[in-house]
Amino acid sequence: MKSKIQWSAGNIGSKDFVCGYCGNGLVSEKGWQGGVAGQPAASIYICHYCTRPTFIDYDEEQIPDVKFGGDVEGISESLVSELYNEARNCMSVSGHTAAVLCSRKLLMNVAVSKGAKEGLQFIKYVEYLSDNHYVPPDAKDWVDHIRKKGNEATHEIAIMQRENAEEIISFVEMILRLVYEFPAKVKRKTSPVTTTVT
User: Fold this and answer.
1) How far is CA 45 from CA 12, 33, 48, 118, in A?
2) Cβ(150)–Cβ(101) below 8 Å
3) Comparing C-alpha atoms, which of 173, 100, 108 is closest to residue 139?
4) Average pLDDT of the residues in 100-110
5) Read out DSSP for 112-123?
């Protein structure tokens, strides 16, 4: 039987990390130190921005880890925004297969938000995004790559690795910037400024 970790609270030695909840970088020394037979085994640090706990074990694995990918502004469809954040959150808990599946579903939602019909085969959504120039010509292969990886995650026993999920989320982030963020920025810059005369 494994020895139980004994925990003690207080100042446990400073640790710098990025909070997996709020995304702030910090140095914290408040929390709990866990040990087995007098040897350090794990720590739980408290973020002084959001006050949530982060678990860091003896080999520096952090739970929750930092979300992978960047924030994307201007997403007008709440389902698209929620799915993107869900994929990123999956990465913070090593849910790489789930992140790939979310990314695949996300592309379908992007296509529907831009006018594609619901209930089509996934390949039709890939074609819709490409045919309607929502992805650059050279990026069609990448969209198809997401389709294939998503099919593997859905229909095969294969488990997706971190590198699979990272490359797919990186590409999805780029698509979201092209489809939502950059047009929203241009619209804000070119919209006429209205002034109120009193």
Assistant:
1) 9, 9, 9, 45
2) yes
3) 173
4) 90
5) HHTTPPTT--HH
Is the pTM higher than 0.70?
A: yes
Homologous superfamily of the 78-188 domain (CATH):
Nucleotidyltransferases  domain 2 (1.20.120.330)
> What are the structure tokens assigned to 89, written together?
């959150």
Longest dimension (CA), the chain: 78
- Judged by DSSP in three states, 179 sits in helix
The CA R_g of the chain, rounded to the nearest whole Å, is: 22
End-to-end CA distance of the chain: 78
Q: What residue ranges do the domains of the chain occupy?
A: 6-63, 78-188
How many angstroms separate the CA atoms of 173 and 166, rounded? 10
Q: List pLDDT tens digits, range 46-102.
A: 998 999 999 998 888 899 988 899 999 999 999 999 999 999 999 988 899 999 889
User: Could you tell me which residues are beta bridge partners of residue 43?
Assistant: 33, 56
In sequence order, what are the residues at sequence separation of 6 or more whose Cβ sits closer than 8 angstroms to the Cβ of residue 114?
128, 129, 132, 134, 179
